[in-house]
Prior knowledge:
Elements: H1 3-16, H2 19-50, H3 55-76, H4 79-101
Amino acid sequence: MERDEILKMAQKESEYYDEREVFIQMxxxxxxxxxxxxxxxxxxxxxxFRGEPMYDILAMYETTLAGFYIYKYKMEKKKKDLFxxxxxxxxxxxxxxxxxxxx
Length: 103
């Protein structure tokens, strides 16, 4: 393959894929996850002090973790990620059940 052909292919690929945009989006997701974790911790502590059940908040956060590990398993095919996805999925279902029927 000649140099010009390689450059044309690279330019064509960059029309659909911008590494900078992907990096910014991933960084934004990371900041969003940290912010969500802070709010989650605050609400868990608040509900604990009030003696309120926190199944609903736990289910929301566990859903995020289950989704994360499902995607990670899909991309990397590591058994550990599949195991964690299943575990977080099961705890999500349990806490949803408790939030809906034990309240």
